[in-house]
Amino acid sequence: MTILPITRSTATSGRLGPQPGEVIDRHRTLDFTWNGRVLQGHPGDTLASALTAAGERVLSRSYKYHRPRGLSTASYLDPGALFQVGDEPNVRGAHRLLREGDDVRSQNTWPSLAFDLKAVNGLAGRFLAPGFYYKTFIKPERLWPSYEKVLRTFVHAGEISPVPGTEVYDKRYAHPDVVVAGGGPAGMAAAVAAARAGASVLLVEEEHQLGGHLRWGGSAELAALRELTAAVAAEPGIEVMTDSVAGARFDDNWIPIVQRSLPGVAERLVKARAKTLVVAAGLIERPYVFAGNDLPGVLLSTGVRRLVNLHAVRPGQRAVVLTANPDGDAAAADLARVGVDVAAVIDARRGEGIVAAHGRGGVQSVELTGGRRVEADLLVTAVGWTAPTSLLNQSGDDPVYDPRTARFRPDPARLPDNVLAAGGIVGEGSTDELVAHGDATGREAARRAARVARRLAAVPTAVTTPRPPVPQPDAAPVVVPELVTPDHPELFTNGTGGFVDQCEDVGLKELRTAIREGYDSVELLKRYTTATMGPTQGKLETVNMVAVLAQATGRTMAETGTTTWRPMYAPVTLGALAGRPSEPVRYSPMQPWHERHGAVPLVAGQWIRPEHYGDPAAEVTAVRTRVGIIDVTPIGKLDLRGPDIPKLLELLYVNKWQRLAVGRVRYGVMCAEDGVVLDDGVTGRLGEDHYLCSTTSSGAATVWEWVENWLQTAHPEWQVHVTPVTTAYASINVAGPHSRELVGRLVEGLDLASEAFGYMNVRSATVAGVADCVLWRIGFTGELSYEIHVPAAYGLHVWERLMAAGEDLGVTPFGVEAQRILRLEKGHAIVGQDTDGLTQGFSAGLGDLIKLDKPDFAGKPELAWQHERGGHPRLVGLRPVDPTIVPPEASQILDRDGSIAGRITSSRMSPTLGRAICLGQLEPDLAEIGTRVTVRHPDGRDVVAEVTDPVHVDPEGARQRV
Amino acid sequence: MMLLPCPWCGPRSATEFRFCGEAGEAGARPDPATATPEQWRRYLYLHANPRGWSTESWYHGSGCRRYFTAERHTLTNEVRSTTAAGGAP
Amino acid sequence: MSETSEEPIARSPIAPQAPVVRFGWEISARAARGDLSLSDETPLAKVAVRAPFRGAAADALGVGFGRTTRTDVDGVGVGDVLVVGSGPGEWLVLAAPGRGPDLAAALTRRLGSSGEFVSVIDLTHGRALVRLAGRAAPQVLAKVCGIDLSDSVTPDGAALRTTVARVVTDVVRDDRGGPPSSVGPSYLLHVERSSGQFLAGALLDAGAEFGLETGTFVGLAGRDT
Fold first, then answer.
1. DSSP string, A829-855
2. Distance (Å, whole) CA A296 – CA A303
3. Residue C157 belongs to a domain
4. A764, A686 in Cβ contact below 8 A?
5. How many domains does chain B have?
6. Which residues of B touch C161 (CB under 8 A)?
7. Cβ atoms of A61 and A117 closer than 8 Å
8. Which residue of chain B has the CA closest to C166?
9. Would you place residue A1 in the very low, low, confident or very high pLDDT band (cuts 50, 70, 90)?
């Protein structure tokens, strides 16, 4: 961190004497810097309260017009207090607690906060009309990069460090009986009541302490808070999460909770599955829209009371208070108590009002209705409340506007059984009434949770022991007392101007212009003007926007409606959503050896495999001339047991399986019901009712599910047990002319002579002292080869013994790349590489394998029709006329008229032939051997290639049958 | 994320399951010996996609690895009945 | 270990700490100092049984889907075994290291007499098995497993299959088999062998904040000894 040796400010004139509910620790002082200047605050201060205490009034510049802005809500939502702290942009300055050494900066002000050149936008404001971006920057498109650059320097947002962060993010699951979202009086009471009824409870509070509005109240509120705090602490069944947000409510009460302020963890996402959810989110105070409402010094009553009572900070010297409710009155009283000169209290309930706030860089005077001007540096407004109903909306309850109480209100009757609402979000009341409401709601939540628990327990695997002290689920519903909300005047805007959305800098006049232009539905108005789309996401602004729209269109607020409250309730970092990124990976038993011997790793699905050990071409040559070994453990293996296996195999494969003798292996291909090639592999018969079926590595999981589907849903009467044994065996393919010699040196009790153990046979034997190894004589590489399946714990042992025993034979480990070349030389197609999601069986070179005379098998009708139709693409070999050119895979093959007639599916330089070879899918009229076709590279270059047999090396198969 | 009540394991998060299409009449496999292309492709590709109750096939791949059918309301995600493949429990 | 050792050594997929060879397996020698430990139990014999969900074979196994029981497969001298009802019509039977073939043979004999369609497969090599034990074990597991691990839902003797760190896992609560030095819940986690190293790593990562340590092989007797 840079140490900035700038002047030390000692002015803390804004700090008041001790307050009864203050949350700061006056015994300790924290140093921090504000735009490089060293200032002091106390533990418990937010960044914004410390700055206000230090006499700072202008904390930021606005988004579009770069107007000076100060505190308004003094809470998480405050649009005037978004800071850059060190590397971290967009920090909620009125929420984040001050730490020693914080490097706090105002965002995107240039050259300085006090003198921001970009504020010229404000003077030229008429050029930033609503839809300005759409109208101005839409054309010409090629200029977008420069537009972007210009706009970015004017945007009010922090800077992200290009260096990856070192913060740790985390996740966990939780299964509380009850989640209580909101830790005010009702939420605390609900949590205590639910816990006393035996429920496990997560009590989630966005702020740093429980208590909600009690915290900034008077002595009665503080006494109630102490009592509730003690009651919460006394319940071991309550887990309290402060500085945490229940971000959303999804199906079946799946509730993501973002936890902050944890030791060693930047943020943790708690994935809670709550049996019941109690939404006790309280109320959010709504700003008032009037000319000058964004001047520093215009604060909401709750903002003032937070500053005074929680942080002992003087918000101004001389105040005008506009009040329409008891909270406004209390703010005036708080200010008077701490010695702020309250110049005027304007009571909206008596029809009094204000016209505008005036001043440069801050409030200097307030113009009242009737024209009188009062000098003041602080204007406090208390004009009403918004119920933050997001979680209720997401539960199916869309709130409806109630003109009597001047707010959109939820209706608990519309909520599903497992969601309840408590406290201020439902209605107002005294502390006792709110606590009683929370208490009853909490008891009811616990009762319903017990009912859900009983339902969850009604499964075959459930434990029969009853849960200990949960309430009787059959008990009668708890009667929840009603909260009677007093009438409240409807105060949204006085029509003189000002900003509706201070995050996005959307003014009253701009909204009206947009409505005149035809954007007269609330969703359209939002998208066109971006009002409510800033960091506060409409929590302060939406209702005022609705009011402006209702007034302009002559509709009622209820008719106008509101926008949808979507998840998440509060912004969540990508880190919290990602958690600790860790994708499962799978390793073969020989992985330690591969790592020690320089294998280049290849990620194949979840598997980590050796791609090669340095020189794949040399590995190919070793296999063709001596002997090589490859780790093929990922090949899928299914152990099949039971008398009905032949019936199953007949159904799964396109070829015939009835007469496979014990000890024999057969190659088979599976097609899906649409005739498209699904998978291939060999299956061997190990015993009378015992088979081992192999699949491709990538297809193992799919094939298993598919087989289970046939067995469970189509043929439950068949007696077949399928067990995946892919990793029960370490699979090693020993390939090359010396493979018989090498395997012979380690195998016990098995005659490897061709007559005794011929091509396409399977045997069990002891290899290198390991019993029960399964050996197949098969050959994907085209060489004499033995695939040894070793009980997996001994895989490394056998691999090491093969390497040691074959040293004089020149045994060479080979990787996936050499295997790909070897099989391409041999013309073996790979499902998913030489076929795709549209390749039906007859296009995959399987014509001889597909037995349409079988009564049934998966995909048979489609394959029969494909055969009947003809004219389908073919799998062919291709050789570029220039042997040095390897056309990249997926190069197009062109028809004579230039249209696409196929593609290269596999291509490599063949070390054995010393030339480029390919496989491809090609239209039938070009598929005749000897045809010359044009291959277009992805870069547009054309080369000529000749169609050949798919088998490039040893077409007679002599090498593998020896 | 919704819970899906596996007839064997009880309610589990939907991510433990794979949706395998409509079951019952809609998902029944025609007799391959007599099916017309139209019938076969209806079986492969056409679904009723009702707005309301739907009988579906699910596979509990991360749990008991059993297939079952569920009657699910596609609007509310309510599941009113499940049937394990092959009978029981 | 020498690369040319002629004596076969069985190896777990999970890299051992301070490896020693016991009963033919390479295992971690280092014991955990604290209460919370993760031990590699892969050497235990692991036999899978498939049989009808209800019937004589199921009765003979003594436990249904979702629960475990400790029993003695009589007459074969394999000693105590843990029978886990791991799925509908599926059982996992665990026994001391090296006893897999004997156990499979004994189970085949015993269940074969039921006349039902039964199969018995020794999967000792095909699966990895770890034990997570200690007071904070449920909290560690709750970071990577979405199942409700509270005593009322997943008590001692419960068995279920779900994902742990995105890997499909048999979760078996077996407190009695926990290491003698520990108290609290003990979970056996049983996965495809090739996922063993990943699972162990994910659990150690999840458990770091609780002080999770690698422990030595415990076996099945655990707190009985």
1. --TTTTS-TT-BGGGTT-TTT--TTSS
2. 13
3. yes
4. yes
5. 1
6. 9, 62-65
7. no
8. B62
9. very low
Type of residue at C72: D
Q: Taking residues A479-497, what's their average pLDDT? A: 95
Q: Is residue C63 part of a domain?
A: yes
Write out the two tokens for A385: 């409340």
* ipTM of the complex, rounded to two decimals: 0.97
Q: What are phi and psi of A5, to 5 degrees?
A: -80, 70
Residues C185 and C102 in one domain: no
Spatial separation of the C-alpha atoms in residues A505 and A130, rounded to whole Å: 10
Mean pLDDT for chain A overall: 92
> Residues A356-367: pLDDT tens digits?
999 999 999 999
pLDDT score of A466 more than 50: no
Amino acid code (one letter) for C170:
D
Give the residue numbers spanning the domain of A32.
1-162
Q: Which domain holds residue B56?
A: 3-27+47-84
- The pLDDT tens digits of the residues spanning A283-315 come to 999 999 999 999 999 999 999 999 999 999 999
Q: Is A898 inside any structural domain?
A: yes
**Do the Cβ atoms of A865 and B2 come within 8 Å?**
no
Amino acid at residue number A394: Q
Does the pLDDT value for residue A282 go beyond 60?
yes
Same domain, A627 and A727: yes
CATH for B11: 3.30.2270.10
* pLDDT mean over A654-667: 95
Q: Cα separation of A761 and A755, whole Å? A: 11
pLDDT tens column, A5-30: 333 334 446 999 999 999 999 999 99
Q: Say whether both C113 and C206 belong to one domain.
A: no
Q: Is any Cβ of chain B less than 8 angstroms from the Cβ of A860? A: yes
Question: Would residue C13 count as lying in a domain?
Answer: no
**Count of the separate structural domains present in chain A:** 6
Tell me the C-alpha distance between A172 and A193, whole Å. Answer: 26
B67 in contact with chain A, both atoms CB, cutoff 8 A = yes
Instruction: Say whether both C211 and C142 belong to one domain.
Output: yes
Q: What CA dihedral angle connects A771, A777, A779 and A783, to 10 degrees? A: 100
Boundary (domain end) residue, out of A432, A456, A480: A456
Three-class DSSP category at A577: helix
pLDDT band at A581 (very low <50, low <70, confident <90, very high): confident
Pairwise pLDDT comparison (A52 vs A7), residue with the higher score: A52
Q: What is the mean pLDDT of residues A485-508?
A: 95
Chains that touch A (3 or more CB pairs under 8 A): B, C
Residue B36 lies in a domain: no
Angle ∠(A73,A79,A81) on CA atoms, nearest 5: 85
Q: At A724, which helix (H) or strand (E)?
A: strand A721-724
* Cβ-Cβ contacts under 8 Å for A596 (sequence gap 6 or more): none
Q: Are C203 and C158 contained in the same domain?
A: yes
- Residue A596 has what pLDDT? 97
- pLDDT over 90, % of chain A: 83
B2–A254 CB contact, under 8 Å? yes
CA A88 distance to own-chain centroid: 21
Report the number of distinct structural domains present in chain C: 2
CATH number, domain containing residue C38: 3.30.1360.120
Cβ separation C87–B64 shorter than 8 A: yes
A422-461: per-residue pLDDT in tens?
A: 999 999 999 999 999 999 999 999 999 999 888 877 666 6
What are C51-97's pLDDT values in tens digits? 999 999 999 999 999 999 988 765 555 668 999 999 999 999 999 99
Give domain status of residue C7, yes or no: no
Domain containing residue C50: 45-122
Model confidence band, residue A662 (pLDDT cutoffs 50, 70, 90)? very high
Q: Which residue of A has its CA nearest to C165?
A: A584
Task: State how beta strands B79-84 and B67-73 pair.
Answer: antiparallel
CATH number at residue C54: 3.30.70.1400
* Residues C206-224: b if buried by 16+ CB within 10 A, e if exposed: bbebbebbbbbbbbbebbe
